Amino acid sequence: MTAVVMAFDAGLMISALSIGLMHEGVEQSESPQEMGIAFFAGALVFMLGDWLIDRCGGGLRDCHGLDCPLKKGRRTDTGTPSCF
C-alpha cells in the first residue's frame, strides 16, 4: 500500500509541475501551438530516454533477493545488453 501512495504522490507532483510550466509557457509564448508541439516533443524525448535506459540494463537496478540473476552469477539475457 505504501508503494501505491508513493506512486500516486509522484504522479501528482509531476502533474502539478508540468501544468504550472505549461501555463507559464503559454503566457510567454507567441503561439499556443508552439507550446503544444514542444510539450509533445519533450514527452517523446522522455519516453525514448526511458526506453534506452531500460534497454541498456537500467531495469536491473532494482534487482533484490535470491531471484536476482546478478546475485546468482548469471544473467537473463545473452551477454552485455546492446544499448544501440
Overall tally of structural domains: 2
How much helicity do the residues have? 55-70%
The unreliable regions are 71-76
Class derived from helix and strand content = mainly alpha
Task: Please tally the β strands and state the result.
Answer: 0
Overall mean confidence score, pLDDT: 75
For the report, how would you describe the main beta sheet?
none
Number of helices: 2
Radius of gyration, rounded? 19 Å
Order of helices and strands: HH
Indicate the proportion of strand residues.
under 5%
Q: What's the N-to-C terminus distance?
A: 37 Å
Form type: flat
Could you explain how this protein is built, in words?
About 7% of the residues have low confidence. 61% of the residues lie in helices and 0% in strands. It contains two helices and no strands. It starts with a helix and ends in a 29-residue tail after the last helix. It has two domains: 30 residues; 45 residues, no CATH class. The chain is an all-alpha fold and 84 residues long.
How does the SSE layout of this entry go?
Layout: H1 2-28, H2 32-55
Please give a handful of descriptors for the protein shown.
single chain, 84 residues, mainly alpha, 2 domains, 2 helices, 0% strand
Concise structural overview:
Helices cover 61% and strands 0% of the residues. The protein has 84 residues and is mostly helical.
